[in-house]
């Protein structure tokens, strides 16, 4: 790094964060544009301990200032957050910066929340970019309210910066590899009954696919948990596997919003408490799998999940806005005080819909000899089949609605024409299509919100 960087201002506060393991993040900064002094760094977060690459405080300040240069004439809608990605080869770093407007000391300022990583970590970080940005965006939403009320925004930002450091450190050591050997999964067992009951495996894979490939696997035995995690990751893309995490043998990770599959260990009492707020903020609904008691539960479908998520988010921000003092409601508290919306804390339901697609796949894959590449090839063909069915469903809906110009009203015909009359099959293909075309569930089931029970009644009438 260059030694000609400007010295750090003595007014800049710094927090050293104790992170277990090697954290690939060099630092995070919160900076703002001062109309007199120009770019100013308000706070620096840096992981504590030895790092392969070290940045001095002056260098961090220089890099943080770099993200705000040229933003003085920024023109954006009120409340907008611009995401900018800098690769500074001459400094050997990458900077992800979220630019937004906020009030500091009674004046409207352009602010930047940035994370700094070594350029060598670019391939590692890119698959996790969307997860980190979405979590930081919501921290900024709450932080803007805190700033407007004259409270300390640093306390709000720390609540997300620190977990992201912990997430990146855990993914560095326990992320699921791109290439999974089928021998390390349940699909290679000679007798499925020895390690995993057939009905449990069927229900786990089916629900996993119905919830867009997002699952939590909990248990007391790390080997058993990780075996199920690897099995479910076989049904994900390579990029999605990089956003999945194995459990840690000696201690449990915390639940992290945004990961596709994650293994979590129970505590010494045999329990694991999931944080309601973080689970609800996951981009897709989630399947909960307990390998100790062989239970599978799932969240409501995508359109209901998105509806609950948005209502809760608005309720959370509204409640924070109504606070009279900074100590009234800590920014990480689960909000359920709004009389207009009381969230159902029991968000996981039994898997209601059976399917034929996964059932046939499991029955047939275990007819093939283990130890050969036949099962891997058959799995690839099964995933290709689901992808083709999802594309056919999207094309069918496009034609029926003239590419969205008309509402969709022929669900019964779609199920018959595409051979998706079994509800579980429809849910699986719909989930694949949702990832190809976000918002499909909400479009198909109409703007008037239907709860799971109402939706089931509608579907049963066809």
Automatic annotation (TrEMBL):
Domain of life, per lineage: Eukaryota
**A biological process from GO:** autophagy
This protein's GO cellular component annotations are:
autophagosome; endosome
Fetch the InterPro entries from UniProt: C9orf72 (IPR027819)
Molecular functions per Gene Ontology = guanyl-nucleotide exchange factor activity
Q: What is this protein called?
A: CI072 protein
According to its UniProt entry, this protein's organism is Anabas testudineus
Q: What is the lineage of its organism?
A: Eukaryota, Metazoa, Chordata, Craniata, Vertebrata
